[in-house]
Structure formats: C-alpha cells, structure tokens
C-alpha cells in the first residue's frame, strides 16, 4: 500500500502574508511620495542646454528675452482664468511699459497703469464722460470701483480681492489685460484681432506678435526658471 505524501507546509503562513502586506503598504506610500517629489524637483531644474537656447535666440534676434520672474506666475494665473496664452500677456507688458520700468505709468494721451489702459476702457465706455480717445472725466473714486466698472461694462478686474480694481496694481492690471484680450478675440483663437483692439495700430500688432512668438519658443524654459526661483526663495 502506497504511503500518502505529506502535504507541504507553505513557506510563509497566511497570517504572515497578511502581516507583510500591511507592513508594505505604508512603505510603498513613502517610496511613491519620495519618487513623485524627486521627479517634480528634477523637472524644475533648468538645464544648461535649455539656457543656451535662450542665449542663441537673444543673439540671433538682437534683444533681451528675459522676463522678470516675479511676473510669470501672475501671467500664468491670469492666462488660465481667461484662456489667454501667458506669453501674450508678457509681450503686452514688455511693449506697453517695458515690464513696468518706465519712469511714469501714465502716457501722454492718458493711458494708465502697468498695462496702459485708457480710463474709459478700464471703467467702461458707457460712462457718461467717455468719448474721443477714452480719457474721459471719471472721478478717481469711480475709476477703481468694481461696481462702477460692472455698471459701465469696463474690463477692469479686482484680481487680488481687495475690493479695488486698480490699473496701477500689477495683478489687477494683468488680469484686466487678460480679460480684455480674451473678450476681444483670443478665446476664439483670433489673437491678432484682439491685439488690434488693444491698440488700433498694425505696427503695434506686429510688435506684440514679434515678442509673443519669441516668448512662446522659450515659454516652458522660463516657467521652469520661475519655478526654480520660487522653490529657492
């Protein structure tokens, strides 16, 4: 009569397997979290070859492509809200006030702030004092009042939620420009049409498009630079 073979005992018992699974879950979470943040840090690193791309473009085109890093997060946030390329906002800021480095932020014809809005465009052309070029005769208290702007159909935006829509506040100004450009045609893909509405000049359109196209080429690199700078601060 053949002997019955003894059943082999499992190398690891069911209880031990369950214990190891429970033990490995938090370890897996820790490892995944570490890898995720390490990858995010690597993506934020600006590589030397990427910087050389900027240098080559600058040398070839003959102008400085540098955008002040502190403005890039504002461009990006405003662009996302109004569906406008952030690089287009940067181009307007560059052309209008050279990134707010002009001696005065009021033009000879009356355009005001970082992005050079005529008061009637900012507050709304339905304001009773608005005519001609759009300087108007709007009381200072009304120029920055979101309720007045909403009443007269202006493009001014209170971006930082302080109850004031101020063309001399950098966030309000950029968000207001994004608001205008979006409604003027950018959200429909009509970028040049929107630029012309911003300033009725074909030469102005060419200038904005020139900077916009260059910034588009290096936009991802500039975003990484801004991210790296923010992480270091």
TrEMBL record:
Domain of life (superkingdom): Bacteria
Gene Ontology biological process terms in this record: peptidoglycan catabolic process
Chain segments annotated as transmembrane: 20-40
Keywords, ordered alphabetically: Membrane, Transmembrane, Transmembrane helix
Any GO molecular function: peptidoglycan lytic transglycosylase activity
A Pfam family the protein falls into: SLT_2
Membrane is among the record's keywords: yes
Domain Transglycosylase SLT residues, every copy: 152-190
Protein name (Swiss-Prot/TrEMBL): Lytic transglycosylase domain-containing protein
């Amino acid at each position: 009569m053949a002997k019955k073979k003894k059943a082999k005992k499992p190398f690891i018992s069911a209880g031990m397997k369950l214990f190891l699974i429970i033990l490995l879950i938090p370890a897996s979470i820790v490892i995944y979290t570490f890898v995720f943040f390490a990858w995010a840090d690597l993506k934020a690193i600006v590589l030397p070859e990427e910087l050389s791309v900027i240098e080559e473009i600058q040398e070839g085109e003959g102008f400085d492509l540098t955008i002040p890093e502190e403005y890039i997060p504002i461009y990006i946030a405003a662009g996302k809200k109004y569906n406008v390329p952030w690089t287009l906002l940067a181009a307007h800021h560059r052309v209008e006030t050279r990134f707010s480095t002009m001696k005065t932020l009021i033009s000879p014809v009356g355009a005001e702030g970082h992005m050079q809005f005529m008061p009637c465009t900012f507050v709304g052309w339905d304001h009773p004092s608005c005519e001609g070029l759009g300087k108007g005769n709007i009381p200072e208290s009304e120029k920055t009042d979101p309720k007045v702007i909403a009443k007269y159909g202006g493009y001014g935006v209170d971006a930082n939620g302080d109850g004031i829509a101020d063309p001399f506040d950098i966030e309000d100004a950029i968000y207001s420009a994004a608001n205008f450009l979006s409604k003027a045609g950018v959200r429909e893909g009509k970028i040049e049409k929107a630029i012309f509405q911003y300033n009725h000049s074909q030469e102005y359109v060419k200038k904005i498009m020139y900077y916009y196209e260059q910034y588009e080429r290096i936009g991802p690199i500039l975003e990484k630079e801004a991210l790296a700078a923010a992480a270091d601060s």
